Amino acid sequence: MTQVKKGIVVWHLYNTGYVFKTSNACFGIDLHFREAELLADDLDFLLITHRHHDHYCEPLMDAMIQAGKPVITRWYKGNTVVKSPKEFNFGTIKVSVTIGDHHRHLP
């Protein structure tokens, strides 16, 4: 496991999400790949931006929930469901969630 003494390390896992690590926290955003659930022990929390299949991995989400770790989504049962803008504190990490959509809406 990579040790981070100062600042933050970010891993962009091709097009399968991101892992962020600081000296005292590790979290994922939009992780989607085979056997992603193996990261559940290493992640402190998980953020899912939206419900497209390539932005989430149910086995990872279930493993996180089973371990009592926060999973933030807009829809998935057993976790924190966000329906409006909200801020979360996970230890020293502050996360601001806004509600948006990456689709273009035509008039």
Describe the structure.
It is a single chain. The protein has one helix at residues 58-66, and strands at residues 9-12, 18-21, 26-29, 45-47, 71-73, 80-81, 86-90, 93-97. It is mainly beta and 107 residues long. The longest helix is centred in the middle third of the chain and has 9 residues, at 58-66.
Tag the structure with descriptive keywords:
single chain, 107 residues, mainly beta, 6-stranded mixed β-sheet, two-stranded antiparallel ribbon, 1 helix, 28% strand
For the biggest β-sheet, the strand order reads 1-2-3-4-5-6
| Average pLDDT score | 87
Helix content: under 10%
List the secondary-structure elements in sequence, H or E.
EEEEHEEEE
The poorly predicted ranges are none
What is the rounded Rg?
Answer: 14 Å
N-to-C CA distance: 49 Å
Helices and strands in order:
Elements: E1 9-12, E2 18-21, E3 26-29, E4 45-47, H1 58-66, E5 71-73, E6 80-81, E7 86-90, E8 93-97
Parallel strand pairs: 3-4, 4-5, 5-6
Antiparallel strand pairs: 1-2, 2-3, 7-8
Question: Short description, anyone?
Answer:
The protein is mainly beta and 107 residues long.
